[in-house]
Design brief:
This protein has 275 residues and is α/β, with parallel strands linked by helices. The protein contains 6 helices and 15 strands.
């Protein structure tokens, strides 16, 4: 029995050695692992104890001063009110910066340093930044300029541009009206309205052939057209005193004040008698 047990233990140890040689068994036995954990815990504990000792005993943090005051919030106040409030807290109004702001009125505080809620020593300065209000600029005079040129001038000056059109004696595409008027102060970004000329009003030439001369002239005059010349031409029968030719032709578009020429029928004999 003893011989058999010894042989079995020898075989088991041989198998364990073979597994270690082949990489099948654990790299460290249980006792070796436990020893490594204990060493690591001791190192970590020693570091923590050393850190606490150095920060609490050797190099302790200085105690916070007891004479500090809290900085009040002066945002949205004027300089006089802010100075009074800071003096009440034991502080002094320091340097004042300024900047343009599109919505905050002038002389109103936009920011401060130190910030509200921070602490400072009594008598310390608090620097503030105040608003200069929105930027204002005079409307440039763009009357008579082309629409494209006027838009460039206004937009590069910080204005918003809106355009309308209207008939005018000015050339087509020219600026005939500016609102607000040129030179007026406007808060940026302000809107400027431009009225662009469509040119003189256009009239369609009517058909006056077959009308009596006086009726044709009256119709043309009511449309703003000018009868520049009436030529008498020889005609027989019913064409006497009637418009037989017109220039320009009907349906032609003319500007108001455009000239029209007519030819009216006359008998040769009656013309000689009238002369």
């Amino acid at each position: 029995m003893k011989l058999g047990g010894s042989l079995e233990r020898s075989r088991g140890r041989g198998r364990w050695l073979r597994r270690r040689a082949e990489g099948e068994g654990p790299l460290f036995p249980r006792l070796e692992r436990e020893l490594m954990w204990k060493v690591g815990a001791l190192v970590l504990g020693g570091w923590v104890v050393g850190y606490l000792f150095s920060t609490r005993v050797l190099f302790p943090a200085p105690p916070p001063p007891r004479d500090l005051v809290e900085v009040p919030d002066v945002h949205g106040l004027g300089l006089a009110s802010a100075s009074e409030q800071l003096q009440g807290a034991g502080l002094v109004l320091g340097g004042v910066d300024s900047l343009l702001h599109p919505s905050v009125p002038a002389e109103v505080i936009l920011g401060q340093s130190p910030l509200p809620g921070q602490v400072a020593r009594p008598g310390s300065e608090v620097r503030v930044t105040i608003s200069l209000g929105p930027q204002r600029r005079s409307v440039p005079d763009v009357l008579g300029l082309s629409e494209d040129r006027a838009r460039i001038v206004l937009e590069t000056s910080g204005f918003l541009v809106r355009t309308d059109t209207a008939e005018s004696e000015e050339a087509r595409g020219r600026i005939i009206e500016v609102t607000p008027a040129p030179g007026q102060q406007v808060t940026l970004p302000g809107q400027v309205r431009l009225v662009v000329s469509m040119g003189p009003p256009v009239v369609t030439m009517p058909l006056v052939l077959g009308l009596e001369e006086l009726a044709a002239v009256a119709m043309l005059d009511s449309l703003g057209l000018v009868v520049a010349d009436v030529e008498e031409v020889f005609r027989f029968g019913r064409d006497q005193g009637i418009v037989v030719e017109q220039e320009p032709a009907s349906d032609t578009e003319l500007q108001r004040g455009g000239e029209v020429r007519l030819k009216v029928g006359r008998r040769g004999l009656e013309r000689g008698n009238n002369e």
